[in-house]
Write a structure and sequence with these properties.
about 190 residues; mainly alpha; about 0% strand
Length: about 190
């Protein structure tokens, strides 16, 4: 029984030591979450609405210019496969960049609620000890920390999920438009028909 008591003391010490780092991380993640939301709003203001506007001075104009340069270099009919591969590579680069932006936000979707749950469960041990000792102030303080951590963790997850969902839809639509524009540009220049 003495060994069990010692193990419980060690676990309780670890549990209590994790409270402050978890609370600090929750605060930092809330700030990061709203940075991502602000970045999404800034990106929305730069996005072009019409199909032609996206490629003519809009947010996808870099891809359009790179595609035109590739088509100009590959006028030879034997270069058709190389052209397709290089345009495919441009699309992959855009997809990788979009995946990087989405990856950071998706990480918050998972970590926010996990830290919220940790922030909920960590103070429950001391809260129960306060209850058994008749210390209602300790019980109330720990329950406030517990429930607040849950709400903050869920807030992080909700905002991150919203940002990731909106961006995923944007990037998927952009990739479809880019593929269509590449095929249209190739057909327009007559490379594919040779």
């Amino acid at each position: 029984m003495e060994l069990l008591d010692e193990l419980m003391k060690i676990l309780l010490t670890i549990n209590n030591a994790m409270l402050y780092p978890v609370l600090i991380l929750l605060i930092l993640l809330v700030a990061l979450c709203f940075v991502f939301a602000g970045d999404m709003i800034a990106e929305y203001s730069k996005r072009s609405k019409g199909f032609d506007d996206k490629f003519n001075g809009g947010h996808l104009s870099g891809f359009y210019e790179a595609t035109k340069r590739l088509i100009a270099k590959h006028r030879n009919p034997r270069d058709e496969n190389a052209l397709s591969v290089k345009i495919g590579r441009l699309l992959q680069e855009y997809e990788a960049e979009a995946g990087r932006k989405l990856g950071n936000t998706r990480l918050l979707i998972r970590i926010g609620p996990m830290l919220g749950l940790m922030g909920t469960l960590i103070p429950l041990g001391p809260a129960l000890l306060g209850l058994t000792a008749g210390n209602l102030e300790q019980l109330a303080n720990n329950l406030v920390i517990a429930f607040t951590s849950t709400v903050v963790g869920l807030l992080i997850g909700a905002v991150a999920l919203t940002v990731a969902s909106v961006r995923q839809r944007w990037y998927s639509h952009d990739l479809d438009d880019m593929e269509y524009m590449a095929e249209l540009s190739i057909a327009k220049e007559g490379v594919a028909d040779r």
